[in-house]
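Give me the fold.
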Amino acid sequence: MDRCTHNIPETKKGIGPCRIEAEVMKRNGKPNWWCRTHGLEAAGPDGAPLERCSGAWFEPVPDEMQIDIDLSVGEVAVWGELPPAISIGKIPEQPGGVHVHRRQNAGSAKDIDSSYDIVTVHGGGATETIERMAARAFAISELTQQEVQPLTCPHCEEVHIDELKFATQPHRKHLCNSCGRNFLRSPSISNPLGGLQARLGLPEPPLAQKVDRPLDISSQDYVGIALWPANKAIISTMTRPEDKGIHVHAWSDTGEMVIDETYSPVILDGGVIDEQALRMMAVQRALAADGTPIVALACTECGYSILSPTEGWVEPITRHSCNACGAENLTRRKSFLNPLAEKAD
């Protein structure tokens, strides 16, 4: 199978000049040139080392996209944030990937309700960093109902991050983000945010509860609508349970956000939103950033609208088994299938 691939963590952006080394050889016999500063491959097309890796071009994360949180103050919850599973119309750009809520007490309004690239939290005598890359990978694993744990590379002792499709299925071979060497473990998904609640000395929060808060909404009434499946917080000090359902944002023609709440059930343009399909749509949207199509496809045998597998590797394919009758359906390109694709822009 493919090795883990990865991006550059936010904490490694702008941290200094490249340090390019080769500790092992690739299968083709050429050195595995790797930047130990930014944790990215540093070989040119001819296999020779680059002077600088692609991570050298990133500027440090600006101060306004970072925040320090004292977990002893108020009630705090932190989530990994993915693009909307369904977006219709004009959706304001939302920077960041680590979303933070804070209330001074359980009954007060939120005094923090924003997204950041880096969130530093302090609690239980420990300090931990939650960065966008790991937070988004955590959200993908949670939405595919996978457990994560921090795995340390035996070669360089850095904690590895499995992202994108590697966050959807436990696997044995991991390509270290920091030194570029493979290491083996029992089937697992690595994320430094696994077990963070316990490492910070925080008690387990109350179990999320399904809301009974129906919403019937029409896209014609708003300039933009965005839907996300509710997903578990990375850490939470809230005393009330998280809401389980569908989180909805809607904007008026003046650009004001007039809906910002979690609902269930949700009816959009006359159709009930299937929450399992929405969870997969959120994952598929995150994995389809390279242009992979997400399409609604009716089975050629029974007419059932097919949903790509929700277990195992989440990756685009050309052969799709119908969820209802088992018939094989083909797409010319590798694609994700989801009945909700027809509702998204």
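The CA atoms of residues 152 and 234 lie 20 Å apart.
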